[in-house]
Amino acid sequence: MLLALDTSTRLAGIALYEGVRGVIAEQHWHSANRHTVELTPRIAEILAQADVTPADLRAVAVALGPGSFTGLRVALAVAKGLALANGLALLGIPTLDVVAYPHSHQPLPVIAVVQAGRGRVCWAPYALGPAGWSPEAPYGLTTVTRLAELVDRPTLFAGELAAAERATLAEQLGERAHLLPPALTIRRAGYLAEMAWDRFVAGRADDPATLNPIYLHEPAAPAGAGMA
Amino acid sequence: MEPCDFSLETGSAAETQGWGSRLAALLKPGDVLALAGDLGAGKTAFTQGLARGLGITEPVTSPTFTLINQYRTAEGISLQHVDSYRLANAPLEMWDVGLADLFAGDDIVVIEWADRIPGLLPAEHLEIQFAYLSEGWRRLCFKAHGLQYVRMIDRLAGRIP
Asked: ipTM strictly over 0.85?
């Protein structure tokens, strides 16, 4: 059994997953930046509801970001704690990979976004390439208006977009903008769990000592002064 | 010193607070004010006036040891009062505190000793430098970084209504 945790943004999610049964339990909620106090009670709750004990867990997955600075650190700290205390495999998955995942089996190129605050999004283009379904370019950080200017072909937009941002994309791009109803863009913890489960089965777990969030902004820090 | 977009002199802490209150009336959610200047140059007095102008009734003190104090008005506007004076490696430690989340949100953010955290400030912000002139007298220098702050300074200076 694998436990997946995602507090990258205000839309938080957790899921339980197992190879044969798939997603066993999953929940999402909007957190007003209260991930610190909300996450662990939710984990206890979902385990109890699914009649699962910590001893049944073999792996813990976490969304690495980009996203809210504090949010990323909450889930990663909890995931590392669970991994170390219970001897679980730890698997970190980039948040934008989770956003793009449900659209990996359709033909349109995808732009995955997460909210970065103050009208900006962090984004990356995804398409099926030689390396499989993966980001085709480094992450960008820009406004939705500027992002629309970069799009020159029909593109599916994945991820949380405010109503005004959806309107901007529709207006600037016309038929090139393929927008989904909001509920279809939810970043489900079940996706994160499934991606992590595949890596867990392949024996490609991460090292709890070195796994770090993917931050939107890094300070100009002295070498070696990164976060533990 | 680089030229100011607007500068003024105040003859008392009360007068410095008055300018803080006046600026408060021009602020919108998400605005960022970067305050710089020596100890006792008026940064905290200015912030106290600003808080009062926003309708915050709690006493406002420098968050020198708490790093960030948060206040909320009756209308639900939040003021984040940040102080990077105490931090030895201010940019790294302020980053570690999660300053980026404040700049991603809709709260008004006032940073004292903002000159200690270059590189962490959003590109658009209002810079205010405080200088000690003589007993009681202080000089405030406003510099706009971004168009919205050019307009804010013009309003504060009474150049446009």
From this structure: no
DSSP H stretches of helix in chain A: 35-49, 69-86, 95-100, 144-149, 163-173, 189-201
- For A89, the token pair is 């495999």
Total domains, chain B: 1
Please give the single-letter amino acid code of residue A11.
L
Residues of A in contact with B30 (CB under 8 A): 118
Give dist(CA B83, CA B128) in Å, integer: 14
The answer to whether residue B150 sits within a structural domain is yes
The answer to whether the CB of B125 falls within 8 A of the CB of B32 is: yes
Burial class of residue A4 (count of CB atoms within 10 Å of its CB; 0-12, 13-18, 19+): buried
Tell me: the pLDDT tens digits for B136-154? 999 999 999 999 999 999 9
Identify the bridge partners of residue B8 per DSSP, sorted by sequence position.
B140
- Best to test chain B binding among A118, A120, A216, A227 (most B CBs inside 10 Å): A118
CB A193 within 8 A of CB A16: yes
CA atoms of A99 and A118, how far apart (whole Å)? 20
Domains and CATH numbers, chain A: 2-95+187-201 (3.30.420.40), 96-185 (3.30.420.40)
C-alpha–C-alpha distance, residues A111 and B133, integer Å = 55
Interchain CB contacts (distance < 8 Å): A and B: 43
**Inter-chain CB proximity A69 and B30 less than 8 Å:** no
Domain assignment of residue B6, yes or no: no
CB B99 within 8 A of CB B78: no
- Model confidence, pTM: 0.84
Domain that holds residue B69: 29-133+143-156
Q: CA geometry: angle at A60 spanning A55 and A61, to 5°?
A: 165
